[in-house]
Structure prediction request, 378 residues.
Amino acid sequence: MKLEHINPCPQEFDAFPGVYAVDDKYELIIPVNTPTVMWVEIGEKKYYDDSNGILRSDCTTHKITVPMDVLDDAGKYSVCYRVVYERSPYHPSLSDVLCWESEFYPIPTEQEQINVYHISDAHGDSDHTVDAGRYFGNKLNLLILNGDIIDHCGNAASFLTIHRITGNISYGQIPTVFSKGNHDTRGKFAERFHELTPTNNGKPYFTFRLGPVWGIVLDCGEDKPDDHPEYGNTVCFHQFRLNQTEFIKNVINSADEEYAAPDVKYRLVISHVPFAHTNRPPFDIEVELYTEWCRLLREHIKPDLMISGHLHQTFVCPIGGNIDHKGQPAPVVVGSRHIHTEDKDDFVGAAITLCGNSAKVLFTDGDKQVVDSTDITL
Ligand SMILES: [Fe+2]
Prediction:
């Protein structure tokens, strides 16, 4: 039974590992508070966190890539490490090997009902989001963190919010999909975001396949024009978005290995910004480019559902609904908001159950109370 046996988090780890789906790989991310060298063992095979053959220890976050099919088949893995006492040029001093073992529960291809919990816009709040994210308990199959989990990248420690939310909901036992938000682009550590979070060879946009679920993760970058004074001439997101137009076209050209592959039952678009929506100035950017993204997705990929955040609201917008200004490719779940009242600070996320040709969307708070719900026909 999943999430039933959890080995305690080692004292050297700042959070349980996160197992992030990216393309045909999982990226395991383990934040540490002590210099360590680290690798993951699956069966007899070792996957190292190394820099061209040198085991990394001058880092606070280990990132280890393993083939998805290998971990899925094994259903368990070990995070192995040595504490580094002194990394001298000759005869460095390290501890014996320590290991943390975990079960892993992939989504079986034949599984009909998939429980997904979506969190975005935590903006640094890990406690309430974790409470909300545990809605499905040990029935959770997939966690989605969809941008603005931290408020900005002004300091490296803020990344712990991401790792603690993932670790304290998934315990390293189920997959997580991660996407970037506009606040993730701000501050001096933003240019190192890809070192501390899951990416596809450095790129935060990618596809993934988890059992019957196929998805594409897109990154809109900032939400105002590149020359907006708030950014002080530090961003070039127009070109970054153009690169993703080509990426979407490449995915379409590989349809048979992607969304049209055998046994794909659910197609998801995951984007922090619901880009079919045209917001008020100065947020009304890239109308032509986002209209083209919508067209490509709508005419070729034909997704079942788009999952977004950013608006700090919780609702479902059908095709042609009130935030559909560019030709939505699918119904959009806008799925996270905080509650701040005199009596209560809380967080509402989206508990999404995919089953057959429907998606049941429950918006739930940290007390596991359903505050709103919508049924969607896919
Ligand atoms: Fe946002």
The chain has two domains: 18-103, 113-377. Residues 121, 148, 181-183, 272, 310 surround fe (ii) ion (CB under 6 Å).
